[in-house]
Design a protein that fits this description.
Length: 568
Amino acid sequence: MTIPKMFNNDDYAKTLWLLLLITAVVILAGVGLRDPWPADEPRFVEVAKEMVNSGNWFFPMRGGELYPDKPPVFMWSIAALYWLTGNLSATFLIPNALASLLSVFCVYDIAAKLWNVKTARNAVLFLLIAPQFIDQAKSAQIDAMVACWITVAMYGLLRHFFYKASMAWYLSSWAFMGLGIITKGVGFLPLFFLLPVLVLHFSAKHRFSKAQVNWRLLLGPIAMLLVLAAWLLPMLYIANTSSNPDFSAYRDNILFKQTGERYANSWGHIKPWYYFVVSVIPAFWFPLYAFLFSKSFWRNVKVSPAMISLLAWVVLVVVFFSISPGKRGLYVLPALPMMALLMGAHVSHVGIQPWFRRVLIAGAIVFGSVFFVAAGLCFSHSHIVAKELGDDTTKFAWLFLVTGFVWLGVLVWKWKSMDLFAFAAVFSITWVIYSTWGYTLLNPIRTPAKGIMERAQQDIGPAGELGLTRFKEQFLLFSDIPLTHFSYLTSTQEQDRNAWLWMREKPNRFILSIQDSSMVCFDASKATQLGKAHGRHWILLGKDAMAASCKAPATIKRYHLPMKRTYQ
């Protein structure tokens, strides 16, 4: 493999700082240039905003109503930066950026310790060119952070079992698993790593020392439980002693429905068992898995206990998520850093072989072709792209065309000698273009709720009060006025009945909702049209749209959201 001059010497610190600098530039590019985008980002940012505005940091709330789907750790990170700076738009992407940089460091450092700096460099390059890693690092979804805690936990286990025995690192791994669990329930995934380790040990295929495998391993769960208890015990105490039934509902939902029930009997994102292997990994882990078809890879794995354990863990994680009927592509992200570590170790041993150069060239051709085709569709104002990007597609055509020429340039430059450095360089340039030019073009399209809320606020006037039904979190996030809603968690018809009752009580009250044939208590044909956002038509319902009568709601529910500090 041809190695650029800057990597000629085996300098741990120099190589690490260069890779961290490149990673930071790619991940942090565009911070402050866009707002939170659906589906998940507006929800988490709104919860963080309400933590600061309400002073209630312990129970996540959405529109003043408890948000029972996730523990609070990720929202805390966004809220803390908002509390420090007063600026959400400039900071909401920072927590995942920092978490991803920590993941990169862990992959680099453990690779250098287990093998050498060359392996560490290659492992990080593999991680950076896998599209899923950077995609999530540049988002405000929860998965990049939980992947970070899982990576840190794997780092500690690898140090203890394959570098040098250290109970401190072993116990720290369990503590980070606990932190991962209270970030998102799957933080326990590093436990699967103990299966291949113990099989190797007790089958005598690789005997670990007494300092590595002994009774003190049983102390690990205590470290995890201590971290869990720091959040779980106060939450249980407040839920059990408070007279607020919402707190009890939050406790039951987060402990049962969002954990075991969601895994075993998912109610959303239903996919076939082969979804990750067929629809996610081929595109989002490219080209890491290519080595699985190489005989030399399996020869290397066979003689390396560390590689055997890493591969077994990655497989176990993918199998674990494949068993559950509910699947999203980002679920398997926690396995990606260890997959990169595994492939970095292999490539450092055998080098970049001709067949893999051809894989990289094929990938570059595919990526470049996609951008050129997208540019052509935009220049021709094709309906395929217009329905996603709006009528003015020409400005996107130039973005795609320039990016396509970047990929064409690297193909011309490295046609016969494509390597990880060239591939990582063109990927980095692509991400920076997308994060600057692309963010600027896409932000108005991905945040249409801003315009809807502005028109609603103008129509109701300064004396008007606004309520919401069938809403999404971005409408809460982008509002500059107080809002009332009627429980996000109840049926839409119950929301309608509560909204009708609320409007009848006082004049100058209005409801923002979607045009929906299932609506009750209102005549949508008499509503004011506000525009289209995220594939739905939004309407404003006034007094003249109210039905003469309406069935009483089963339970009167309403939540008021004061706007102490608005999104900025």
